Amino acid sequence: xxxxxxxxxxxxxxxxxxxxxxxxxxALLARPDTCGDSAALSWSPGSxxxxxxxxxxxxxxxxxxxxxxxxxxxxxxxxxxxxTSGARESxxxxxxxxxxxxxxxxxxxxxxxxxxxxxxxxxxxxxxxVERLRVAxxxxxxxxxxxxxxxxxxxxxxxxxxxxSHGTPRLWRDAFQLPRASxxxxxxxxxxxxxxxxxxxxxxxxxxGATGSPVAAANRGVVRIVDAFHYGGNxxxxxxxxxxxxxxxxxxxxxVSEGDxxxxxxxxxxxxxxxxxxxxxxxxxxxxGGVTVDPLSLFAIAGDASGG
Length: 308
Fold this sequence. Notes:
Blueprint: E1 2-4, E2 17-20, E3 26-29, H1 32-35, E4 40-44, E5 53-59, E6 66-71, E7 74-76, E8 79-80, E9 88-93, E10 101-110, E11 113-122, E12 130-133, H2 145-164, E13 184-186, E14 191-194, E15 198-201, E16 205-208, E17 214-216, E18 221-229, E19 233-241, E20 244-251, E21 253-254, E22 261-262, E23 267-270, E24 281-288, E25 291-293, H3 295-302
Parallel strand pairs: 12-14
Antiparallel strand pairs: 1-4, 2-3, 4-5, 5-9, 6-7, 6-10, 8-9, 10-11, 13-16, 14-15, 16-24, 17-23, 18-19, 18-22, 19-20, 20-24, 21-23, 24-25
């Protein structure tokens, strides 16, 4: 989907005007002097699925203009798409639940002047199946108050790392790689029923592996958490910067320490069966800010095979 500027309806200084979208809709723009008349906003894929990562792209803006923006309450972080194109891109995320209509808002800032580009994205609804699993009894019943407090603290700690990543500079240079070259045993978003009593949603992707098999960092990043969580078992959380984090759960070994900078493809741990599991595997989580997304959507748009 692309939005381009067309002749304004009003030519008064600072007046608002509209641009036309290919689907016949319109997007309101204001103070066109800062973004420039050739500015264009696009995104891919054109209809991202709920619970997925997608790209927002801006072209036709002068190099000295700073871009900022927001989608689904999460800031956008624009970086050059290539050395020659002049385009700038940012990741954005569609929450797995809620309204499928999302507004992309991009601000062009130069000195004391600013204006904006905006567009409505309509996400594709996702239908996720339900899995019924048998786990150890301690993981199949409601937690007591002490355990509930512990799991809340662990969850909040992970979310704080994810949100704080918006303040970390972009640390990766190359495409993202899968942490394991193995089959997916359970996909993102699946509903889950444990021992017939607890129903939740699987907010990650599981990769097959025997205990002790290596787990690689998806890309360059800073280690923010190395710990043992109740549900996640032995975990590692990486901050890649610009709002993007990845987490590696159920590990048998953790080979890094908090504060380490790791490189793309570096072995950071080993597959295990710690925490709430039915057997050894790697559970991978990817977040953009506070929004958890399908990890495979990251590799689809910015992985080795994508050329991203």
